[in-house]
């Protein structure tokens, strides 16, 4: 609703004095193009409605509704439009990135991702995040909230804006597809792998591949191919490995009996668990627990 109000009211900029965020909200008519230009800041361009071609550092990137392009500072670029298109441009200065990285409330994993994203952007000049078939309303809602917060000038607004910016960049890394080279994809694929692993560990008792499909929006075949490339295992094999690793950790902690551990990691068949555990660790769970007590075995 807020984005619609911005469109019809003709507002072009929204600034948060406390955080330094600056937006440009523009509607472009069919057949037009922008002048060639570059900035002393990175630019996040979001296609709110319509489509365009981003001409950046000698590359032509076709973008549709919901797509995002990050463009590095100092990179010459311009856009051309075959239909009426509404875009949101967000200036991302080094000051903002530094603030995100140094934010004491930010998750360590998210901070590592921001650092990696900055490196990749400097190496590649631009990153195209392509939306999937299902339009991502959550990202649009996050941008709407960020723009809205930019109009609030109080002590908390800078921190709220930083949190929203972290969520926006994190969502791009976990939900969107990268139209990038093999080098860049390899650099950032670790994030999706970690997200999948975290989801499996948080839902270990009853997780299924259908739950992953619903959570991340990829097809079952994609998950098997992705995990095979990252770990050498299919989803079923990887889930079993995660469960056995977790059971070994619980055995080491010595706070639960074996039957409780079997249920905790998602198995119902005690005999089956004993068999696969013994195959992996070459001893039964009871002997494993005794061994690590005596030898201070590190898992």
UniProtKB/TrEMBL annotation:
<dbReference type="InterPro" id="IPR014710">
    <property type="entry name" value="RmlC-like_jellyroll"/>
</dbReference>
<feature type="domain" description="HTH araC/xylS-type">
    <location>
        <begin position="194"/>
        <end position="291"/>
    </location>
</feature>
<keyword id="KW-0238">DNA-binding</keyword>
<dbReference type="InterPro" id="IPR013096">
    <property type="entry name" value="Cupin_2"/>
</dbReference>
<dbReference type="GO" id="GO:0043565">
    <property type="term" value="F:sequence-specific DNA binding"/>
</dbReference>
<dbReference type="GO" id="GO:0003700">
    <property type="term" value="F:DNA-binding transcription factor activity"/>
</dbReference>
<dbReference type="Pfam" id="PF07883">
    <property type="entry name" value="Cupin_2"/>
</dbReference>
<dbReference type="Pfam" id="PF12833">
    <property type="entry name" value="HTH_18"/>
</dbReference>
<protein>
    <submittedName>
        <fullName>AraC family transcriptional regulator</fullName>
    </submittedName>
</protein>
<keyword id="KW-0805">Transcription regulation</keyword>
<dbReference type="InterPro" id="IPR011051">
    <property type="entry name" value="RmlC_Cupin_sf"/>
</dbReference>
<keyword id="KW-0804">Transcription</keyword>
<dbReference type="InterPro" id="IPR018060">
    <property type="entry name" value="HTH_AraC"/>
</dbReference>
<dbReference type="InterPro" id="IPR009057">
    <property type="entry name" value="Homeodomain-like_sf"/>
</dbReference>
